[in-house]
Amino acid sequence: LTKTLRIGLSTLLDSKDIMMIGLAQTLFECSMYIFVLLYTPAIEETLSSGQASEDVPLGYLFSTMMLAAMTGSLFFQAVEKQTKKSRYGMHFTEDRLLSIALGLASCAFMLMAYHINVSASILMIAYHLFEFTTGLYYPAISSLKADAIPEETRAAVMTLLRIPMNLGVGIIMWHIEEMTSAVF
């Protein structure tokens, strides 16, 4: 086991591409877990601050957010298929699609941060935009990992790439009681 991890670490440290993929994975997935932990308290706080007096239909909200994630994944498939057929120079590679997903996720978080306690409808749009980017992110990052990480060291490298993300999520969970929806 230690030999396998040592070889995986060597592969990881020797490749700038794999390091960048790991950084993107850590940052995106940590932000996703923060979102998962705090989106319901944030929407309830926004609604209780005068936007509406009714209860939030969390089941419908979750369902529509999962639909947005599925739409992001379908968008990835459609763009990837169109890119393979394109003769007009419109090439959206996996790294470009990942960049688009990360940029849109940043915009969604900016909307969440700015519109907390201001507008429940804009907050909902930001939530759904973030879930769309989640659907776009997973196939893009998976394709990049498959291309960048050699098959013989893939399991070890993937294990090592999850360590910073798990540490980040652990630290977030440790301090979740101190966080408020002001994180958004």
Along the chain, the helix and strand elements come as HHHHHH
Low-pLDDT windows of residues: none
The CATH superfamily is identified as: MFS general substrate transporter like domains
Structural class: mainly alpha
Please give the oligomerization state of what you see. single chain
What's the total helix number? 6
- Rg, please? 19 Å
Q: What's the overall geometry? A: flat
In total, the number of strands is: 0
In round numbers, the mean pLDDT is: 85
- CATH fold call: Growth Hormone, Chain: A
CATH C-level category = Mainly Alpha
Helix content: over 70%
Main sheet record:
none
CATH architectural group: Up-down Bundle
Quote the beta fraction: under 5%
| Termini Cα gap | 41 Å
Short description, anyone?
With 184 residues, this protein is an all-alpha fold. It contains 6 helices and no strands. It is found in: Cell membrane.
